Amino acid sequence: MEKILEVKNLSVSFNTHDGEVQAVRDISFDLHKGETLAIVGESGSGKSVTTKALMKLLPEPQGFIKNGEIMFENEDIVKKNEKQMQKVRGKDLAMIFQDPMTSLNPTMKVGTQVMEGLIRHRNMNKQQAREKAIEILKLVKIPEPEIRMKQYPHQFSGGMRQRVMIAIALACDPKILIADEPTTALDVTIQAQILDIMKDIQAETNTSIIFITHDLGVVANIADRVAVMYAGKIIEIGTVDELFYNPKHPYTWGLLGSMPTLDSSEEELFAIPGTPPDLLYPPKGDAFAPRNEFALKIDYEEQPPMFKVSDTHYAATWLMDPKAPAISPPPSVQKRMQADKAKKGVLK
Amino acid sequence: MIEDQREKLVEVKNLKQHFKTGRKTIVKAIDGLTFEIYKGETFGLVGESGCGKSTTGRSIIRLYEATDGEVLFKGKNVQGKKNKKDLKDFNRQMQMIFQDPYSSLNPRMKVLDIVAEGLDVHGLVNSKEERKNRVYELLETVGLNKQHASRYPHEFSGGQRQRLGIARALAVDPEFIIADEPISALDVSIQAQVVNLLKKLQKEKNLTYLFIAHDLSMVKYISDRIGVMYFGNLVELADSEELYKNPLHPYTKSLLSAIPLPDPDHERTRKRIQYDPEAYGSNENRSFQEVKPGHWVLCNEEELAEYQGAALT
After folding, report:
1. How far from B239 is each of A110, B42, B218, B259, CA to CA, in Å?
2. Which positions in chain B touch A342 (Cβ < 8 Å)?
3. What interface predicted TM-score (ipTM) does this complex get?
4. Which of chain B's residues have a Cβ under 8 Å away from the Cβ of A255?
5. Which one of A43, A220, A269 has the shortest CB-CB distance to B192?
6. What residue ranges define each of the domains in chain B, with the CATH number in brackets?
7. How distant is the alpha carbon of residue B119 from its chain centre?
8. CB of A218 closer than 8 Å to CB of A202
9. 20 to 30 A from A165, CA-CA: which of A70, B89, B164, B298?
10. B260 CB within 8 Å of a chain A CB
11. How far apart are CA A27 and CA A266, in angstroms?
12. Strand (E) positions, B172-272?
């Protein structure tokens, strides 16, 4: 598949009173055309910071890209200045934020906010922009768009506002849509609607989506590929099937195990003990080692490289090393793997 | 039947909670709600935002004065005027854990004083030494340690703060705890920790929980019985297994079909059921009926027959 975005060895840091917080530490990934890549991780794992770096929306000067490149259409986004970025932002790269309540301008009519990008990036006049805006609002299934255009954000419900946000993001036919927890603040029924809309639009426009979330259910629903982040690093990346049915990293096991499935009746949920490390002082070895019951000695000494599982599946854990002892994943994960094998009829 | 042998701890009878939002407009947050919570069980309350589930919790613990109806705790009415002694007695038996672990702890108080506040109010400890030891004990119960007692809330992570909220609620040895979305502000891996803790405490102390949440898979996991709320009223109530296997009300069906599961194969084949409130019509001729033992649905006569038929198969 055609690569549309290549992130290479990206590191992002923040200067704080206490020192440098290394929020993102040396991550690399590609985004293909027309696919949805989900980035999952806990708060503070660096998933939002990564996307802010892609858009160059880091709060400067405290937050800065320390190292690495972000190649988009043969140009390095890292090297672009603010003026150049303004031409890319909203046009080629668009973003949907988590909170639909605060990311719309309360003093501007909704229609004007959708039209803004069209006038600016696509040189439309007001009339053209208005027509296009109505068309997009229809696309995100807002009823009576002509009337809704003239209303203010407070007259919209949460789900409707998130639709408006999607409409604004899609107005200029972006090549990449970055969605930072777009459904976290919404009810499950509304969430399902928004996810359906995003999938429909993707099928129509072939936009690539980077979807940030901490909800593995949402990931299973929308993603083609998944990257799991922990303490500023990507610790496992693969297709959605590989990640859910053949996870390799103990942290991924933990995440999958800590979510109850609807038919589970186990007495206790598998909980990952402890809390994530302080990225002011990132640990020397594998950042997950102190919370990992399978941690090896080397985990505390040296960071594991990305071990290859398949052409599309990589995991950063020393357990994958040929010298590592064979370890079987926790029962809930094994059950998941077996269920899948049984379904697909693959032996061994 | 079996139902009657269990002791009713909380009885909510035709509870109404209306809020005046303007001179003429009234928001009917809860409108004629009736249900019971048995001793030792976890009762889950689910529904979308604005359906009145949090208001229900708050009315039960007397944070709101009910507009109409009554809440009985161990047979005594919670609402209405009370003298100081009765009120204190009541407060000791019922505690609440709040959703937001950031705003529900006083940032200017040390953990020791936050947790001990209930002990002080109810005069449960006699000396400073005893007070301290009791707090240490509580912190250990919730998986924190002694050293934490001298710190301020801002020094804790979200999961740890929620543990503090639990320790504070446990301080007065309550029988009944209302947990209002106790885990929705936490990360997945931390959620499991807190849920496991709540389950462990329930077993040890024979607690009764009212667990309010919108995360349906977690609710199913922790609850014995679940009530589904929609616009200020229950539309369905059943044992949690039964509710998930055999949902009857169209709203419950749509709610269950909307939960994304961490299983890509399942997600690909999932059919979502839409709930259309207009097609369903008003609730005027509908009442809460027992379709089969323990499984209640809001329905009219016609639907009742249909549901009963469906429940038998």
Report:
1. 45, 10, 15, 19
2. none
3. 0.78
4. 188-189
5. A269
6. 8-312 (3.40.50.300)
7. 24
8. no
9. A70
10. yes
11. 36
12. 176-180, 208-213, 225-230, 233-239
For the segment B40-62, the average pLDDT, to the nearest whole number, is 90
Q: Are strands A233-239 and B8-20 parallel, antiparallel or unpaired?
A: unpaired
Helix ranges (H only) for B206-249 are: 216-222, 240-245
What's CA A176's distance to the chain center, in Å?
A: 12
CB B91 within 8 A of CB B117: no
- Asked if B188 and A258 come within 8 Å (Cβ–Cβ), the reply is yes
Q: Would you identify the CATH topology of the domain A3-223?
A: Rossmann fold (3.40.50)
Query: What mean pLDDT is reported for chain A?
Result: 89
B181, B188, B202, B275: best mutation site toward chain A, by most A Cβ within 10 Å? Answer: B188
Look at residues A179, A185, A134, A180 and name the one whose alpha carbon lies nearest to residue A158: A185
The 10s digit of each residue's pLDDT in B114-154 is 999 999 999 999 999 999 999 999 999 888 888 899 999 98
Distance of CA B54 to the CA centre of its chain: 8
Could you tell me if A68 and A11 are in contact, meaning their C-beta atoms sit under 8 angstroms apart? Answer: yes
Spell out the domain ranges in chain A.
Answer: 3-223, 241-315+328-344
Contacts of B274 (CB under 8 A, 6+ apart): B254
Q: Which residue has the tokens 């506040």?
A: B117
| Nearest partner of B206 among B232, B170, B236, judged by Cα | B170
- Contact state of A42 with B266 under an 8 Å Cβ cutoff: no
Chain A: give the shortest CA distance to residue B221, in Å: 7
